[in-house]
Amino acid sequence: MLPSVRLVLQVPKVTATAARTTSGVGSVYEPDYLESLKPKYPQYESLNVQIKGYDYPQLENYQRFLHGLAEYLELDVSDCYALPPQQTQVQRLRPNSTVIESEYKLTTYERNLQLNNVDAPVYPQFLRLAQSALPEGVSLLVQEHTDDCEERRYVPDKELLDLKSELDRMGGPTTTKKK
Question: I need a labelling partner for 104 at 20 to 30 A (CA). Which of 35, 71, 121, 149 fits?
Fold first, then answer.
């Protein structure tokens, strides 16, 4: 009985490449080191951290803090940018009348921080630290980066838009070429 046991023990072990080919996950021609290059944890592809507030210096200081925090946690900060400030006019009326008692002009400032390839276990840590240091009067919004976030970044050229509308009123652009 011992010789048969030895035969079973002498069977060569299956390599990782052969195991992958039988399961259908990989191919014989793929090197083993490609598996080690994949990230250990799932990742968020691109996140947009948006902060808004009325106090410009406080907002700038908080953005600097978030950028330093992201670098400390070894997150990939691909871009930091500011959007143009939004002006809002607020009127306070006297009780039971339409007479304006006071008028305020509020300016809302916005800063954005774009993070790429954020590991899933690191994201909650970043979010907890960002929320714990959030100054009063500043709002924090974290969302996946979309094309709309990129569109809002650029200010439209009013002169170009006027020329395009004038061209449309005149009948639109011609599609035939003159020879």
Answer: 149
